[in-house]
Design brief:
About 50% of the residues are buried. It is globular and about 80 Å long. The strands form 3 sheets. A 7-stranded mixed sheet has the order 8-7-6-9-10-11-14, sandwiched between helices. The chain has a 5-stranded parallel sheet with strand order 1-3-2-4-5, sandwiched between helices. The protein has a two-stranded antiparallel sheet with strand order 12-13. Strand 2, helix 10 and strand 3 form a beta-alpha-beta unit. The protein has 2 domains: about 260 residues, Rossmann fold (3-Layer(aba) Sandwich), CATH 3.40.50; about 190 residues, 3-Layer(aba) Sandwich (Rossmann fold). Helix 5 crosses helix 6 and helix 5 packs across helix 10. The chain is of the alpha/beta class.
Length: about 550
């Protein structure tokens, strides 16, 4: 079914207040005179018929008047709850202003305060107390043609840790980006929280916490709930793509391994982060003139993001002919206990492929020492530990490399390894910098350097759209590799000249379409697509994309 046209016919529309209270169908003051008569709206709206442009002007005036990012988040959330078309028009037209509000970094603060700013339920809350009846819960959702589910258990929200049911802000935000950035119809998106409790004592003591006030359930009961949920999604919404989001390491890796060959699913923290980071490295190499096989990557962090990036970089090298063992040797991890190496006995399974023979490196005590000893071409921060890229670290990188690659990818901003200004100042303006959260442009010795986010919003919407457009059976590593290469190709010479390693957010819908076409190419090449192959993949993808424009209900009724 074409996602661009998924909407009820005019004859099936609710009328009166019921229509005004339906965010998918509501046009607010933009209902025409004819629509007001036809749909029982006369007198329920002020008499002036506003144009969509006037509505946008009003919303943006009030948005910009808010005193803090959290107030802006609440303002946009209220709009999302009453008029989705207008909400997505505003986000699509003003991505630089709105994406940092509806997603990182502000969504982290919103999750921390979720119970205190809660206004209207959105998405499905599936709790451990619902075990045995999950399918019936999913059938309570009013729409059946669901293309995309984003699900979290709230245990590792961004760099903020366990937020329990408050983590619903993440699936809601992610799916808003699917629509704004890639045109996945909002009616075909479903955010889900699996509420199995929380180990956050602050939340359990908070009378306004919206979730179960108990410790997290682990073990067989947890696994049984996840299994029941996945089985129910495939029965109620056949062919739906499931995105795992913000699960803790202990569950993220094994759930992806368990389900990726059985349903169409992926983990954005592992695979999406990997693709956006690899794209940034590939773009940086256009500046340095180096080859990926010549790089040595040192990660601050050894969790989902770090191993995901290292795995995808290794896959890219293997695709170019390098052995898997040699490819993994190009990446080193540094965790809370120091450098990951073969001599350590405390390593979890996901770290072991990068536990290299260290020799004297086994005695490396600090990250700065690791930089000097390993002489990396790139340092990539994904540990959510603020300030770990110190002046000593960045100056050491600048002494080793003419154009050091410095990626401070942890978010929200409070968790960033360093700021853009610090990276540029400590490297004498030579760092090739990207971050997980937005930073302002930096003026350095007459040059204006414009850092851009190495944010997953460049990747996962396009990957999801590609999977949807082909009705893919699975999402593969090759798809993420294609996404990374495509994203890097979308960076122009003007971007590079100002230090930007990613394209501007104003182009994100076009970028997502190209990524979706590249993913679709892989799906067809690997025999994973379940629709006929179109002659023009990019045109096919564009045809699937929802545009946030009001329908003319009187014209629809006439036909």
């Amino acid at each position: 079914m074409n996602t661009a046209t998924s909407a009820p016919s005019a004859c099936a529309l609710p009328t009166g207040l019921a229509l005004l209270h339906d965010p998918l169908l509501n046009k607010g003051t933009a209902f025409s005179e004819g629509e007001r008569d036809m749909l029982g709206l006369r007198g329920l709206l002020p008499p002036h018929v506003c144009t969509p442009e006037q509505q946008v002007q009003r919303v943006m005036e009030n948005f910009r008047r808010q005193s803090s990012p959290l107030e802006k988040y609440i303002h946009l959330s209220a709009l999302h709850d009453r008029n989705e078309t207008l909400f997505f028009r505003i986000v699509a037209d003003n991505p630089d202003e709105t994406l940092p509000i509806i997603y990182t970094p502000t969504v982290g603060l919103a999750c921390e305060q979720f119970g205190h700013i809660f206004q209207r339920p959105r998405g499905l809350f599936v709790s451990i107390e619902d075990a045995g009846r999950v399918e019936s819960l999913l059938r309570n959702w009013p729409y059946r043609d669901i293309d995309m589910i984003v699900v979290t258990d709230g245990e590792r929200i961004l760099g903020l840790g366990d937020q329990g049911a408050n983590g619903m802000g993440i699936p809601v935000g992610k799916l808003a980006l699917y629509t704004a950035c890639a045109g996945v119809h909002p009616q075909r998106c479903l955010p889900v929280v699996l509420d199995v409790g929380t180990n956050n004592p602050r939340l359990r003591a908070d009378p306004l916490y919206i979730g179960l006030g108990r410790e997290r359930v682990r073990g067989p009961a947890y696994d049984a709930l996840v299994d029941e949920f996945i089985a129910a999604t495939q029965k109620v919404f056949p062919g739906v793509v499931v995105q795992f989001e913000d699960f803790a390491n202990q569950n993220a890796f094994r759930l992806l391994a368990q389900w990726r060959s059985r349903i169409c699913c992926f983990n954005d923290d592992i695979q999406g982060t990997a693709a956006v980071a690899l794209a940034g490295v590939l773009t940086a190499l256009r500046v340095t003139g180096g080859k990926l096989a010549e790089q040595r990557l040192l990660f601050m962090g050894a969790g989902e993001a770090a191993t995901g990036i290292a795995d995808l970089a290794a896959a890219a090298l293997a695709a170019d002919g390098m052995s898997a063992h040699e490819a993994r040797q190009r990446s080193w991890l540094f965790d809370s206990k120091g450098l990951v190496h073969a001599g350590r006995t405390d390593l979890t399974e996901h770290k072991k492929p990068y536990a290299h023979a260290a020799g004297a490196l086994g005695k490396v005590a600090t990250f700065a020492d690791a930089v000097r000893a390993l002489q990396p071409t790139a340092i990539i921060g994904v540990a959510a530990t603020a300030g770990t890229f110190t002046e000593e670290v960045v100056r050491s990188m600048a002494a080793l490399q003419r154009r050091p690659i410095v990626f401070a990818l942890s978010n929200p901003t409070s968790k960033s390894e360093c700021t853009a200004e610090q990276a540029y100042r400590w490297s004498d303006g030579r760092a090739l910098f990207a971050s997980g959260s937005p930073f302002d442009a930096v003026d350095w010795q007459g040059q204006r350097l414009v850092p851009r986010q190495g944010n997953n919003s460049y990747i996962f919407p396009g990957v999801g759209l590609g999977a949807i457009a082909t009705r893919a059976r699975h999402v593969t590593d090759e798809m993420f590799l294609a996404a990374a290469r495509t994203l890097a190709d979308q960076v122009g010479a003007a971007d590079l000249a100002q230090g930007s390693l990613y394209p501007p957010l104003t182009r994100v819908r076009d970028v997502s379409a190209h990524i979706a076409a590249a993913v679709a190419q892989v799906a067809f090449d690997q025999g994973l697509a379940t629709v006929p192959r179109p002659a023009d993949l990019l045109a096919h993808v564009h045809a699937q994309m929802y545009e946030p424009r009001y329908r003319d209900y009187t014209r629809a009724a006439a036909h």
